[in-house]
Design a protein that fits this description.
Chain B: InterPro entries: SoxD, SoxD_sf. The complex is a heterodimer of chains A (181) and B (99). With 181 residues, chain A is of the alpha+beta class. In chain A, 20% of the residues lie in helices and 35% in strands. In chain B, 20% of the residues lie in helices and 33% in strands. Chain B has helices spanning 34-42, 88-98; strands spanning 2-5, 9-12, 17-21, 50-56, 64-70, 76-81. Chain B is globular, with a radius of gyration of 14 Å. Chains A and B meet through strand 9 of A and strand 2 of B.
């Protein structure tokens, strides 16, 4: 039996810091895609409530650090950090834990860094804490979640981890260089 | 140009992929006449003014959206989810019978 080494998506790439902004990788957690079967939306919401969460409406999330239910599309949410108990038979469940590269961007300039790559209004009014969105990070498809006033969680397909880190780090260093002028 | 995704809100046009006339969502019945299929597959209006077409929110929530827009002014008049359209099947049946 060969001995395989488990690696997270951004292993060896993160953390990086520049200009008071840090890009790091949160500890790996279970990610389950939850897509309620037709007519089972209410039952799925109830099962998620039993987990202390609930079904998030478009562009929103329920829960927080360590236990989160994140809206990711029409009839689909990601359950992060919790086992999908009580959802079997109610919703299509897919383990996607290893499919995504998760990154956390935090610091006073986090919003300015994202402004260089993301075509969304990320102001506190339009994109408050807890808000979720699917959009683009440069040319990559991304899931964005505002986890705090100055912190964002970014998810891209795992195969794009190095590109995403490169793009974000470049934006961070460019902003830091501009501030140092 | 900005398009309002019924789920995500107003987004840049570059997040969307254009698919063509909204007629494409109204598939004729399986037993419809060949003329109905010919119409469905090949014949399209080319209006100067209001038109309806399908857009895919590719760099976003992956929803199919029916967009009503004006080809002259580029104004986006309305958007709705293809999944939420009413009378979708009735319209498709009607197309089959007409031919």
């Amino acid at each position: 039996m060969p001995s395989l080494i488990e690696k997270s998506a951004c292993d060896g790439l993160l953390p990086v810091s520049a200009g008071g902004v840090t890009l790091s990788e949160p500890a790996p957690e279970r990610i389950t895609s939850v897509a309620p079967f037709a007519g089972k939306e209410a039952a799925a919401g109830k099962a998620l409530k039993a987990l202390g969460l609930g079904w998030p409406g478009p562009g929103t999330s329920i829960g927080g650090e360590g236990r989160l239910c994140l809206w990711t599309g029409r009839g689909q949410a990601f359950l992060i950090g919790a086992e999908p108990e009580g959802l079997a038979g109610i919703a299509a469940l897919t383990d996607q834990s290893d499919a995504w590269a998760r990154m956390r961007l935090e610091g006073g300039g986090a919003k300015a860094v994202l402004a260089r790559l993301v075509p969304l209004d990320l102001g506190a009014g339009a994109f408050p804490v807890g808000r979720a969105a699917r959009s683009g990070l440069g040319h990559m498809a991304m899931i964005l979640h505002r986890s705090g006033a100055q912190s964002f969680e970014i998810m891209v397909f795992r195969s794009m981890a190095a590109s995403a880190v490169h793009e974000l780090h470049q934006a961070m260093t460019a902003l830091a260089a501009r501030a140092a002028l | 140009m900005r398009i309002t995704c019924p789920l995500c809100g107003e987004r840049d046009r570059r997040e969307f992929y254009y698919y063509g006339d909204a007629v494409y969502a109204d598939r004729p019945a399986a037993d419809a006449a060949p003329e109905a299929w010919d119409d469905y597959l090949h014949l399209r209006d080319n209006p100067a003014g209001e038109t309806r077409d399908l857009w895919y929110h590719e760099m976003g929530c992956a929803a199919w959206i029916e967009v009503t827009r004006n080809t002259v002014t580029h104004e986006i008049l309305a958007t709705r989810l293809v999944a939420g359209r009413e009378g979708k099947k009735a319209a498709a049946k009607g197309r089959g019978k007409k031919a």
